[in-house]
Amino acid sequence: MKGKEWYQADDVAQEYDDKRFSDGGRHIDRREKQAVLEALGPVDGQRVLEIACGTGRFTVMLAEHGADVVGLDISGAMLAQGREKARRAGVLDAVEFMRGDAARLPFPDDHFDAVFAMRFFHLADTPRAFLREMARVSKEIVFFDTFNRFSSRSVYNWLLPMGSRLYARFEVEDLLGDVGLHLVGEAHDFVLPYGLYREIPDEVAGHLREMDMGLRGSALGEKLASVSYWTASV
């Protein structure tokens, strides 16, 4: 996985949320959480696995909605942040944080009602292996996001030290077909560069987000969207 050593550093875990989801980054956080909830539907009483859970943004949110959640990540430092977040939210009993490899999930077939990964596939060096494992342990729903090849992300990507794996639609469809999944829902967003929001104050980001959402509703906006959310069924 790209940036594996960087990602596991203690100082990265401590500053991860503040650097990415404060100020203008709140608009990213809000949209991503909405996408997860829309894809998974009512999760009360459901067993859910989050791949690459990081500091537990989504893990804790789903526990607050009544899910029984397992968050898996390669970084012990990130998992420690997640446990503290769950403790503060009062949902620690509903969440299990595990350190593990997403390409070899330590669960039996059909163990979860839903499995999802956010902010993961752009770093995955073997996406089929990861997606195949997600499909194996899910009874029904597999959800993930990608950065899109034909979008503003392709320009922004040049500025990143690690870069990102970018996907065209046909590549996502091929991935799903190869692991026996069926596409049942999709959404496309962020015509403006995704990382731009993290670099500007919340007030300025709010105005840009309004413009971005207006573009999103057009055919051109959907075509140029830098992020896609994919919902598949087993």
Automatic annotation (TrEMBL):
Enzyme type, top EC level: transferase
Enzyme Commission number(s) of this protein: 2.1.1.-
SUPFAM superfamilies: S-adenosyl-L-methionine-dependent methyltransferases
GO molecular function: methyltransferase activity
Gene3D superfamilies: Vaccinia Virus protein VP39 (3.40.50.150)
Domain Methyltransferase: 48-139
Pfam name, any one: Methyltransf_25
Keywords from the named record: Methyltransferase, Transferase
Taxonomic superkingdom: Archaea
Listed GO biological process terms: methylation
InterPro entries, A to Z: Methyltransf_25, SAM-dependent_MTases_sf
Name of the molecule in the record: Class I SAM-dependent methyltransferase
Species in which this protein is naturally found: Halobium salinum
